[in-house]
Design goal:
This protein is mainly alpha-helical and 92 residues long. It has four helices and no strands. The longest helix has 35 residues. It is flat, with a radius of gyration of 22 Å.
Length: 92
């Protein structure tokens, strides 16, 4: 990004640009971890009999592969909003 581009951005545009960069870097890291897991699984499988084979997710399961519990997220959000409202009420 050029210096002129930086100064032309609003704070929100800059924030979005930084979030996009962070997400891109995180995606690259995920691909690298998954590649290592695939290679390791392949190395382990070559020396095992067919009935003793393992799957990649048996070797390691990453946090981004876990299912998102929507109900837990909703409950956490509701609790956070309650605590914020309570704090705002106490500050008045």
């Amino acid at each position: 990004m050029s210096l002129d581009d930086f100064w032309d951005f609003t704070p929100r545009q800059f924030q979005l640009k930084m979030e996009g960069k962070r997400e891109y870097e995180e995606m690259i890291q995920r691909f690298e971890w998954e590649r290592v897991r695939f290679q390791t699984t392949a190395l382990i499988k070559k020396d095992r009999k067919k009935q003793n084979q393992i799957k990649q997710k048996d070797l390691i399961k990453f946090e981004w592969e876990e299912k998102v519990d929507v109900e837990k997220i909703k409950a956490d959000r509701k609790k956070a909003l309650y605590l914020i409202a309570k704090e705002n009420k106490n500050n008045k």
